[in-house]
Every structure is written in structure tokens, then in C-alpha cells.
Specification:
2 domains, 41% helix, elongated
């Protein structure tokens, strides 16, 4: 059964994250979100996250195919999901950022650096190389460059 997390707004403005216990998810959460942007509330059995942690959390969930039930709401009745950086992003561009392990607001220089670093690991000419992964990486950087109107995209 796939994991689904539940998000809600805490009274202090932080994001309350609740989920069934999953050791792998906890490890990934700790790796993706800086220690000063997360706090475990043992009494309420939930993570309290800084709003700055939303982007890395969404990237983690997209990459690991974790479902997100977003019960947060913003002043004026707008759902938090509508304010997400992914909300207005085309699906192929969103998937490209996920493929390169990037937040949706990452600048091109970071996308290029991530592509180069991952290519050093997955290029078929190298020991660990995986042709299929390298093809996905090439497609992702091509799509990101294309949306920015760069030559050679």
C-alpha cells in the first residue's frame, strides 16, 4: 500500500505533517529537510515543518511517489496546494525537476550542476552507468532548457 502523508496548518504557522510510521520515509525526510526546519512533536505524533521545508518535501514526495493529502488553507480561502510552486508548472517540467532531484524553483545553473553530477554516476561509459537513467537525465535537462528558450534545447 503506498504511503500517504497529511498536511495541515499548525497554530504557529508551521506545517503539521502526519503519516503512518515508515522508517524509510523518516530517514528521507531527515535527509531532505534541514534539522532547523523540522521538529518532532511526540505528544501530537506529528512533524512540525517550517514553510521553507515545503519545496523539499514536495520534491521528496514526487520522487518517492508518496501521496499528499493537503488540508492546509491560506487566508482568503486559497488552498495551499494552489500556492505550491508546482501548481502552475507543466507536468513535463515538474517531472524534469524531480528527475534531477531539484526543487521547482531551482535556477538553471543548479539544474545544470545536478545534471553534470548525476551524469558522472549514471553515464553508460562509467562503472555504475545505467543507460535508461542517463536517457531520463538527458530528457530532463533538455526540457528545462527548452522552457527557458535556450539554444540547443
Amino acid at each position: 500500500m503506498p504511503l500517504t502523508i497529511h498536511l495541515s496548518m499548525d497554530v504557529d504557522g508551521r506545517i503539521a505533517l502526519r503519516s503512518p510510521y515508515n522508517a524509510r520515509f523518516v530517514e528521507q525526510l531527515k535527509a531532505a529537510i534541514a534539522w532547523d526546519c523540522r521538529e518532532w512533536d511526540g505528544q501530537r505524533k506529528c512533524w512540525l515543518l517550517s514553510p521553507l521545508a515545503l519545496d523539499p518535501l514536495l520534491v521528496l514526495c514526487a520522487r518517492e511517489q508518496i501521496g499528499v493529502k493537503d488540508d492546509r488553507s491560506q487566508p482568503g480561502g486559497e488552498s495551499a496546494e494552489a500556492l505550491s510552486p508546482y501548481a502552475l508548472m507543466p507536468e513535463d517540467l515538474r517531472a524534469s525537476f524531480v528527475t534531477l532531484y531539484l526543487a521547482p524553483n531551482a535556477p538553471l545553473c543548479v539544474a545544470e550542476a545536478s545534471f553534470r553530477a548525476l551524469a558522472k554516476v549514471f553515464h553508460p561509459d562509467f562503472f555504475v552507468g545505467e543507460e535508461e537513467v542517463m536517457q531520463r537525465l538527458n530528457a530532463a535537462i533538455h526540457i528545462i532548457r527548452g522552457y527557458l528558450g535556450l539554444p540547443g534545447a
